[in-house]
Structure formats: C-alpha cells, structure tokens
UniProtKB/TrEMBL annotation:
UniProt-recorded Gene Ontology molecular function terms: glycosyltransferase activity
Cited CDD domains: GH130
The entry's keywords: Glycosyltransferase, Transferase
TM regions (residue ranges): none
Organism of this sequence: marine sediment metagenome
One Pfam family here: Glyco_hydro_130
Transferase listed as a keyword: yes
The protein, known as: Glycosidase
Source species taxonomy: unclassified sequences, metagenomes, ecological metagenomes
InterPro entries per the UniProt record, alphabetical: Glyco_hydro_beta-prop_sf, Mannoside_phosphorylase
The UniProt record lists the keyword Translocase: no
Length: 309
C-alpha cells in the first residue's frame, strides 16, 4: 500500500502529482481533470489536456496500478472540426466523465463554443475512438455525469445549470440518452460553508448500500478568488433528487503547493473515482488546473461523513 499524506478525509498519494505536462508526449499547456475507469484490473484515464493555444481536448492514459500512468502518443478526441458538433466545440472540449452503463462506455463532457457551455455525450468502444451521440443541454449547463444504471427504467444524469446566478446540481432523465427532461433540483450551495458560492457534480455517481454517493465540488469565493474543494453527498437510490446526507466538511481541500499554485490556484477538482475491492476509493483530481493527482479514502468513512457528519 503506497504511503498517503493525511490531514483530509481523502489522503493524497505522497508522489503526487501523477501526471503533469512533462508526461504528455505532444506540445500542450497543461493536463488536468482526468476521468478514470478500471477494466479487467487495468486502469485507464481520459485526460483533459489544454493545448498551447488555449483550447482543451482529450488524451488517453493507462496504468497497471492506478498510480503510474503512460499517456498515448496522440490525443484521443479533438473538438469537432466539421459537422453538427463543430459550432458547439470550436472553443474546446472539457472535463470528461466516463460511465460504463449496460456494457457500453459513455463520456459526458462540456462542449465550449461561441454560444457558451453545453453538455455533450459520446460513446466509445475502445477509449480511443469516440462517436458523438448528442449535445444534451442548452448553454449555461456543465458538470454532466451519467448514472451507471437506469433509474425507474430511464437513463439519469446530474448536471449543473446556472439559474439566478446560483450554480446548483439537478437530476434529469431520458428514455434514449438524447432527449432529457423531468429535471429536478438536487442540492445547492450552503451559505457560509466551504461550498457557499457554487456546487457541481464531479464523479459519476457510485452506487453504495446507502444510496448514490456523489463526489462533488464546492466553491467558496474569497477576496483572492475562488477556492475549489471536494465533498460528498448521498442521494436516494430510487429518487436521486432526495438528499439522504451531506458532508459538513470537505473531504479534500487545496493545501499542497501543486494545488495552491498553477494556472488556476487553489483548485482540487475531481472527474471520477474508482472503488477498489478492499473498500478504498481512489479519487482522481485536477490540481490548480495544471496537473492530475490521486487521493484515497475509506469508502465506509466517506459514507459515514455524509450520513453522520
Ligand atoms: C470549473 C471548470 C473546471 C476547472 C475549475 C477551476 O468551472 O471549468 O474545468 O478545473 O473551474 O478552474
């Protein structure tokens, strides 16, 4: 078991960051906000890479232990350069989230174009080739995460529309992954807390005995700018608009230099987590929008921090 640095409920790997721009075999500005999946004991991660010109795209990395990753020599998904998605993605594709659902692998991501941010969905069979399905929101929405199971026979997602200047998490449903509706509020910022300015879904929801565990990000605005932290919330298994419990304290806050200093300082921002057979959860997160790190937490302790904060 590698040594993890303590102080937060989630413990950083002592050799963080695990992926920096030095590990990317082609020119780029930064790498951050990667989304992991574990298949047959092998770890894969889709990375958000920001090109030198400032637009983001995706690259694939793989690992035998979830800690040491090799990055493929070429990007795996670029913003669409033609066709119906071009106008939505011309300023980049950001913050991928992988979900395996009924044997298929989907990626929900933020498409950025002149009309703003929208949530988009694609399918992949090999993590290297992506078939776009649809843009699934109107502008002003991001942080889309697809549930790994249908709920009440429907596909379900969390997302983060901004309404009345408040960024809150909502749930929506779909019969076909293309048409979405029945949207309901799930949770919002909490006045005076570490997540008082904005919240958003981070990892695709994880099914536990207690319900859907959602690893989310919370933002506090300060006189020096925003601070992004990681927290957790438990949602009802059959009706995820119902909150069963929510952490009081963040599970991970920016403390290390690589989280404090970078293109956007004071940011820890997760896009996925892997629950291991031994009950440990590896949370992969972007640090200061400049590198990718991993922190580990005990799933039972994390669930307890939501249910009995
Ligand atoms: C959010 C997203 C993330 C980013 C974070 C901090 O709004 O855009 O991609 O990591 O801000 O800059």
């Amino acid at each position: 078991m590698p040594y993890m640095i303590g102080r937060d409920l989630m413990h950083r790997w002592e050799r963080n960051p695990i992926i920096t721009r030095q590990d990317i075999p082609f020119p780029c500005n930064t790498v951050f906000n990667g989304t992991p999946v574990k298949v047959d004991g092998q770890y894969y991660m889709i990375l958000r890479v920001e090109g030198l010109e400032g637009r983001s795209f995706f690259a694939l990395a793989d690992s035998g232990d979830g800690l040491h990753f090799q990055v493929d020599p070429h990007p795996c998904m670029m913003p669409a350069a033609s066709g119906p998605f071009e106008s939505w993605e011309s300023n980049g594709i950001e913050d991928p989230r992988l979900t395996v659902l009924e044997g298929k692998t989907y990626i929900m991501y933020t498409a950025v174009g002149p009309r703003g941010h929208v949530i988009a969905l694609a399918e992949t069979k090999d993590l290297r080739h992506y078939e776009r399905i649809a843009t699934v929101s109107e502008p002003g929405n991001k942080d889309g995460v697809l549930f790994p199971e249908r709920i009440g026979g429907l596909y379900a997602r969390l997302d983060r529309p901004i309404g009345g200047d408040v960024g809150s998490v909502w749930v929506s449903y779909s019969p076909d992954l293309v048409n979405w509706g029945r949207s309901e509020f799930v949770f919002g910022p909490r006045a005076r807390y570490w997540d008082c300015f904005r919240v958003g879904a981070s990892a695709p929801p994880i099914l536990t005995d207690a319900g859907w565990l959602e690893v989310y990000h919370g933002v506090k605005m300060t006189s020096a700018g925003p601070i992004y932290r990681i927290g957790t919330i438990m949602l009802d298994r059959d009706d995820p608009s119902q909150v069963i419990g929510r952490c009081v304290e963040p599970s991970l806050s920016p403390r290390e230099d690589y989280e404090r200093v970078g293109d956007v300082g004071n940011v820890v921002f997760a896009c996925g987590a892997i629950v291991e057979d031994d009950g440990q959860m590896k949370v992969y997160y972007g640090a200061a929008d400049t590198s990718i790190c991993v922190a580990t937490g005990d799933l039972d302790e994390i669930i307890a921090s939501c249910l009995d904060p």
